Amino acid sequence: MDMTGWLDYFLTGLETQIVEVRERSEQVIRRDVLVKQHRLNERQAKALGHLLQHSKLTIQDLEALCPTVNRRSPQRDLKGMLDKNLIAAEGATNQLVCRLRGDLWG
């Protein structure tokens, strides 16, 4: 019985999963390093995780990540991240889109 096809299929799937796990691990490590370096709070850490995963963040995204906090808190959190030069923002206040700064990883 030739199992070459099955082994090839299995190894391709395994390789894909290993790559995904490695990428996700790198994101978590980057997030943790930046959180510690810049003394970010829990909401800012969530925002940073979202940015690493999705490459952009809106105030509505952050409000959805932290539904139990006052509406002004996510705004202050983003302002704090802007002040620390972690993110760049574009657009008007209601349509503000934040992205990680391109030079952040040197």
Observed structural traits:
106 residues; Arc Repressor Mutant, subunit A; 4 helices; 3 strands; mainly alpha
Topology:
Blueprint lengths: L3 H35 L3 H13 L2 E2 H7 L6 H12 L3 E4 L6 E4 L6
Antiparallel strand pairs: 1-3, 2-3
Helix pairs in contact: 1-2
Verbal overview:
By secondary structure, the chain is mainly alpha-helical. The protein has a 3-stranded antiparallel beta sheet. A hairpin with a 6-residue loop joins strand 2 and strand 3. The mean pLDDT is about 90. It has a single domain (about 5-100), classed as Arc Repressor Mutant, subunit A (Orthogonal Bundle). It starts with a helix and ends in a 6-residue tail after the last strand. Helices cover about 65% and strands about 10% of the residues. It has 4 helices and 3 strands; from the N terminus they run H-H-E-H-H-E-E.
Q: What is the C-level CATH assignment?
A: Mainly Alpha
Tell me what portion of residues adopts beta-strand conformation: 5-15%
Q: Give the structural class.
A: mainly alpha
Please state the second-level CATH architecture: Orthogonal Bundle
Identify the overall geometry: elongated
Percentage of residues assigned to helices? 55-70%
Major β-sheet strand ordering:
1-3-2
Give me the number of helical elements. 4
CATH topology descriptor: Arc Repressor Mutant, subunit A
